[in-house]
Amino acid sequence: MARPRTFDEGRALDAAMHAFWANGYEATSTQDLCEATGLGRSSIYNTFSSKHDLFKRSLARYIELMTVPQIELLEDPELPPLERIRVLLARIVETEFEHRPDGRSIGCLTVNTVVELAGRDPEADAMLVRDQEVRLAALRAAIAAGQLAGGIATRRAPEELARFVNAVVGGMRVAAKGGADRAAVEAVAATALDALTP
Amino acid sequence: MARPRTFDEGRALDAAMHAFWANGYEATSTQDLCEATGLGRSSIYNTFSSKHDLFKRSLARYIELMTVPQIELLEDPELPPLERIRVLLARIVETEFEHRPDGRSIGCLTVNTVVELAGRDPEADAMLVRDQEVRLAALRAAIAAGQLAGGIATRRAPEELARFVNAVVGGMRVAAKGGADRAAVEAVAATALDALTP
DNA sequence: CTCATTATGTACCAATCAATCCAAAACTAA
DNA sequence: TTAGTTTTGGATTGATTGGTACATAATGAG
């Protein structure tokens, strides 16, 4: 029927996502995207209609890749709620320091995008707000369950504790990107759990 | 001797700092800087030798404006150490929400720059690392004093608690920039203090 | 007044930006 | 083979980027 593609769209999207992840939206040029994906300009504009569109799809993919497993973990009935949060924080430490022999973290595309584009890009904004609502809801539910079962401190409402855990995650990612070593980030996670412990 | 300047260098630097603060380094063009400062191109390049140089001076000014009062507060002998940290967090909430009737925070230039430039701009990197070391040292000292005097929990070392407080501050700023309202950010601060309370 | 010196505004520079155009290429259905 | 459709690469677009050149303006020292 027509000339077939010589590349895999999913792989190309992954490569673009990593480029945006490492360097941000503004600092990633369309030329960078060509080199990262291995595609020519025409193929990129034919497949993804603009740089901004490609960024939206990259962000959507990142959110899917990161948030879905986190929600599953927070709803895991096999683990006590406090343990779910402990594992969540441990996983974040893990992802921040995996495959980075120079010790410098690449950070988190969600946090990076909040800082770079929140308030200036309505579409990215909406995606980030929705993602955060989903994550906060899962945290609230796990915390409420933990308070009921007795493993999590009841001195504050689930809403407050969920906001706290969410902010600590962001703080850990900023610290890692700022050059903090693994022990330092693990100390943040461990101390945060103190606030949840009865 | 020579033609005098028709503008105040300090005011111009403040205006440039606010432009970088609101939009980041890459997204702020030299044209934006001209409009923000009210100066012509020649005056800007004559006074500050390049966009990057102007950014470094803006960042230095921001760090001075933010960190110096925070250090003074953390060393205030009039207040019990835990109270110093409580006031520190309260001030951060205050600065994030002052003069922002739309509720959208502009964030923190230090955090924004860590996320945007850490690992890619060695000079900005060095300034940020030094600033963070100063802030961590002040936090450690206040926490150690609090543990000795009895107002701060001793279940973790001052180094760990300082890292924790520092990360929470970053997390609060990301949350505010992401659209969280004042009550949500205050909940983060209050919960963080739980981890420091015996 | 005259002159050396600095500030300022305008025009301009090459480089890069995101995006488009178009012709050649590669495939399939008929 | 042929017609129809989409992909691909390369050239090119106009706008914008950070930065410069240069002529003119404004000052105080002599």
Give structural notes.
Chains A, B: It holds the Pfam family TetR_N. Chains A, B: InterPro entries: Homeodomain-like_sf, HTH_TetR, Tet_transcr_reg_TetR-rel_C_sf, TetR_C. Chains A, B: Keywords: DNA-binding, Transcription, Transcription regulation. Chains A, B: This is TetR/AcrR family transcriptional regulator. 2 copies of one chain form a homodimer. Chain A has helices spanning 9-23, 30-37, 41-47, 51-74, 81-97, 109-117, 122-149, 158-177, 182-196. By secondary structure, the first copy, chain A, is mainly α. Chains A and B meet through helix 6, helix 7, helix 8 and helix 9 of A and helix 6, helix 7, helix 8 and helix 9 of B. Chain A binds a DNA duplex (30 and 30 nucleotides) through residues 1-6, 29-31, 39-43, 45-47, 50-52.
Keyword list:
homodimer, mainly alpha, 198 residues, DNA-binding, elongated, 72% helix, Tetracycline Repressor, domain 2, 9 helices
Overall body shape of chain A: elongated
For the record, the count of structural domains of chain A works out to: 1
**Second-tier CATH architecture of chain A:** Orthogonal Bundle
Q: Report the average pLDDT across residues of chain A.
A: 96
Quickly count the helices of chain A.
Answer: 9
Q: Which pair has the most extensive contact?
A: A-B, 48 and 48 residues
Strand content of chain A: under 5%
C-alpha end-to-end distance of chain A: 66 Å
CATH superfamily of chain A: Tetracycline Repressor, domain 2
Q: Which oligomeric form is depicted?
A: homodimer
For the biggest sheet of chain A, the summary is:
none
CATH topology of chain A: Tetracycline Repressor, domain 2
Low-confidence stretches of chain A: none
